[in-house]
Write a structure and sequence with these properties.
Strand content: 15-25%
Bound molecules: flavin-adenine dinucleotide
Largest sheet: 7 strands, mixed
Radius of gyration: 22 Å
Number of strands: 23
């Protein structure tokens, strides 16, 4: 039996309705950029599941990549992106995004973003995998905070935008195919059917499927899971990027130590003080993230130590404090002076490369549904995302989706006949009797153990067996709250990720199989599409039986 089409039962005759021209799900950089592209004559409703300020976008530290210096060329940024992507990037997409970067950064400046300056010009830094200095940043190491401050202010001032925070999108509404809006839970109103001429999904990633992650709690893959239930194509779910350097101190909530720290000259050392990256790669600490993260795992195993160390002690202390005020202050909270002491770090889940398949305009495979940002697989990142390319992707695809959805909505009549919604396979029992937090924690630990940086067939089959078993009794229930829906979405995402990682019998980019350590272009130089109906409450698709 396939999974329920909708997570909760609902009766359209007894559910309040709300109409808008365009519905945007997600208020990070991709969602708000999309909303701001819609002309004033069309109404836009933006829903976010928490405070508008809480998103991966607001957490971004390092910056936004763009060719802005006389020494740099578009071709360099394109080459760096393709090289990091390990043979899976879509070249046309890479070229489009890279060439649009300067204009997008200029728009942000026009809208009031204060990027850091050096001698009156944009200060540019360098990060792993980039051949040139081309990353603009703000407030030292709090780029996302500053960029989102400016974008949110502009969105709040736009008369055609309505912003609903703390409003959880449970599912997308599809009648006989096209997307017609979403089922949303809004505090004080309960469940609402939001009907939209066009819907833009910008609900971000799913780092919370791992216990160790840099992502904020909102990143539970809701949009990916809802889109999968709605029949859209998802692909490349095996490619979760791990950030190499996440602060490893008990109680630190896995705070990210930006790549820009290595860009400014920091070294990675093992527990014995040995600098190990020059042995691993000619680019040393500035190798792409997958190379650094995998080298760190090998080093931790070799030295039998749970972390490695970032060393900034040889850099100018004043420059370090001024350039990385957020990281300095976070570490100071744990009694660490980063100008004099080593910072303990280890990798953590950071960025979901796979997701909802979109074309160059941001169209998904479901009519009237567009998508932008981390929720998508656009072809930009291939098998490994180049640092600071994802805020840029959100800007470029957000703009494309806003423009495309607006053009489509403008040509549609205002009248809407509410379609019959086929809610086959209703959830059959209440979810309240389950200990949701316990299953969520078990899932997140399992993903670190069996679906982490290094994978193999036995571990993946173990992970699949557990996840399929949990799906059986979690996906068949109807929950009344966010924690339950998030668990159902996390299980769905985990199932797709484990399936994809099991299938791809090679190592490429961020996907490292110890049992298939070589890259295999002859068989695997292509995207991997998730099959429909893989995720079911009955455990369909399992390779082994649990009982
Ligand atoms: C710590 C950290 C540092 C980073 N640093 C950089 C960097 O320096 N440069 C760079 O390019 N990238 C960086 N990234 C990656 C980058 O921030 C993200 O990929 C990007 O911001 C994603 O933007 P988005 O708009 O797609 O999603 P997000 O910004 O995550 O926004 C998602 C939105 O969807 C909403 N949402 C989710 N589910 C639901 C639901 N069920 N109902 C309603 N709303 C929902 C959320 O509330 C949120 O508003 C970093 C990421 C992290 C975590």
């Amino acid at each position: 039996m396939p999974a329920n089409r909708y997570l909760v039962p609902f009766n359209p005759k007894r559910t309040p309705h709300f109409f808008t021209d365009i519905l945007v799900i997600g208020g990070g950089i991709a969602g708000l950029r999309a909303a701001l592209e819609v002309p004033a004559g069309l109404d836009v409703l933006v829903v976010t599941k928490d405070q508008l300020e809480l998103s991966n976008s607001s957490y971004a530290q390092g910056g936004i990549a763009g060719v802005l210096s006389a020494e740099d060329r578009f071709e360099n940024h394109i080459d760096d992106t393709l090289r990091a992507g390990a043979g899976l990037c879509d070249q046309a997409v890479v070229e489009m995004v890279v060439r649009e970067a300067p204009a997008q950064i200029n728009d942000l400046i026009r809208w009031g973003t204060n990027f850091d300056l050096e001698d009156g010009r944009l200060a540019l830094t360098r990060e792993g995998g980039h051949s040139h200095r081309r990353i603009v940043h703000a407030l030292g190491d709090a780029t996302g905070h500053e960029v989102m401050r400016a974008i949110i202010a502009r969105a709040r001032a736009a008369p055609n935008l309505t912003l609903w925070d703390n409003s959880f999108t449970i599912d997308l509404l599809t009648g006989d195919g096209p997307c017609l809006g979403a089922l949303v839970d809004k505090p004080g109103h309960g469940r609402l059917l939001i009907w939209a001429k066009q819907t833009i999904l910008a609900s971000g990633g799913c780092g919370m499927v791992y216990r160790e992650t840099t992502n904020p709690p909102v990143a539970t893959g809701d949009g990916m899971a809802a889109t999968y239930r709605a029949g859209a194509q998802l692909r490349d779910m095996e490619f979760m990027q791990f950030h190499p350097t996440v602060l490893y101190v008990a109680g630190s909530s896995r705070f990210l130590v930006s790549e820009a720290v290595r860009g400014e000259g920091a070294y990675l050392r093992d527990r014995n003080g040995v600098r190990f990256m020059p042995e691993e790669d000619p680019r040393a600490e500035l190798a792409p993230r997958d190379v650094v993260a995998q080298a760190i795992v090998r080093t931790m195993e070799r030295t039998q130590h749970p972390n490695v160390y970032l060393d900034l002690t040889h850099l100018n202390a004043d420059v370090v404090r001024q350039r990385f005020p957020g990281i300095a202050s976070m570490c100071r909270g744990f009694g660490l002076d980063i100008t004099r002491e080593l910072i303990p770090v280890r990798p953590g889940a950071h960025y979901m490369i796979g997701g909802v398949t979109v074309d160059v305009d941001g169209r998904t495979t479901v009519p009237r549904l567009w998508a932008a940002g981390e929720v998508t697989s656009s072809g930009l990142h291939g098998a490994n995302r180049l640092a600071s390319n994802s805020l840029l992707e959100g800007l470029v695809y957000g703009t494309a989706c806003g423009r495309g959805a607006a053009a489509a909505a403008a040509s549609e009549p205002d009248s809407l006949v509410v379609p019959r919604l086929s809610n086959r396979a209703q959830p059959d029992s209440a979810g309240s009797s389950l200990d949701v937090a316990d299953i969520t924690n078990s899932l997140r630990s399992l993903m670190v153990r069996k679906m982490g940086i290094v994978r193999d067939r036995d571990g993946l089959l173990d992970a699949e067996r557990d996840v399929v078993f949990w799906c059986r009794y979690v996906l068949s229930r109807a929950f009344d709250d966010r924690a339950g829906w998030e668990l159902q979405n996390l299980l769905t995402i985990a199932r797709l990720m484990i399936w994809a990682a099991t299938q791809r019998e090679e190592s490429r980019g961020v996907h490292l199989r110890s049992d298939f350590p070589a890259r295999d272009d002859a068989h695997w130089q292509h995207h991997q599409v998730c099959p429909p109906n893989l995720v079911g409450a009955s455990g369909t698709g399992s390779a082994r039986d649990m009982i």
